[in-house]
Design a protein that fits this description.
Length: 303
């Protein structure tokens, strides 16, 4: 059986950048579109893991092959550094508690352990969630069950770093496309020898699942940028037509003509971003080597 364990819908929070977060979404896919695309891609199980919400997953939870998940933005309260934790097979009540506790990992991690919620550290070698360091990673190792060793958005080198961490600490490997568009759903996946949903999740917990599929490259990232930008413009034009007097709806209309040729720059933007990601990955590797067993947060002491 196959599952793409990291997929976003329009219910994910808006882009975090303060200059554009007022209007640009991380995804424009409906949960129904995600479900149909996942099944068409040959996935046996479907997970929706939006940022800090399960509202999208609940819209398709009536399907027996759907797994309710979430990508939790957890905060190290001492320095404000965020990390992204993937949780799978949770209830709506559990999510409410998680959302209350996620602002302090010292409170969140014991709750996840108590509830036996399968928890992974996502895209660990990427700066996408924040300036994570070796100290943050080591502090989380006693508490997480798995590490996302194959994410479809980072570079192969970043996934190799994640794989090395999983092997060093004996964590279950997990894979997902981290897709914010429909095009990459199912291209990165987790596979296990199972005949039903429960058996699949057991195999994942026991570290018996296998990762497979694609890494990121400049062309796939550029393609995603263009698709998100196109969805933003289309969504904005539709809102402008419905209510042209709302000043918030005028920006996409004004950006339409100059925005189309600017999409050609997406390849340049993708190349610059990936170079910065590679630099972050190398810096993190040096940090991990320099501080192999340190944990300023001492989360392990609360185990």
């Amino acid at each position: 059986m196959r599952l793409d364990a990291h997929v976003h819908t329009a219910f994910s929070k808006t882009i975090s950048d303060r200059y554009i977060r007022w209007s640009l979404k991380e995804s424009y896919n409906s949960p129904q579109q995600v479900y149909r695309r996942a099944k068409a891609s040959g996935l046996d199980l479907v997970a929706v893991t939006d940022h800090d919400t399960v509202s999208g997953a609940l819209e398709i939870a009536h399907h027996p092959d759907v797994i309710i998940g979430c990508e939790v933005t957890a905060i190290f309260a001492g320095d404000g550094v965020p990390v992204h934790l993937g949780v799978l097979d949770i209830t709506e009540n559990q999510h409410r508690e998680i959302d209350e506790l996620r602002h302090d990992v010292r409170e969140l991690m014991p709750y996840l352990r108590q509830e036996e919620i399968f928890t992974t550290l996502n895209h660990v070698a990427s700066r996408v969630s924040g300036p994570i360091t070796a100290k943050h990673i080591i502090a989380l190792m006693p508490w997480v069950d798995g590490i996302e060793t194959l994410n479809g958005a980072p570079l192969p080198s970043q996934n190799r770093t994640a794989t090395a961490l999983a092997e060093a600490f004996g964590k279950s490997p997990v894979a997902g496309s981290d897709s914010h568009t429909l095009s990459r759903i199912g291209r990165t996946y987790l596979e296990a020898d199972a005949t039903d949903r429960a058996g699949f999740l057991d195999a994942v917990r026991q570290g018996k699942a296998r990762v497979g599929g694609n890494h990121c490259n400049c062309l796939t990232l550029s393609s995603d940028i263009v698709r998100i930008a196109a969805c933003y413009l289309a969504d904005g034009i539709a809102k402008f037509v419905r209510n042209p007097f709302d000043v918030r709806n005028r920006a996409p209309a004004l950006m339409l003509l100059p925005g189309i040729p600017l999409m050609a720059l997406s390849l340049v933007g993708a190349a610059i971003y990936l170079m910065m990601e590679e630099r972050f990955n190398r810096s993190l590797l040096f940090d991990l080597i320099a501080k192999p067993g340190s944990s300023v947060f001492e989360l392990a002491g609360n185990q």
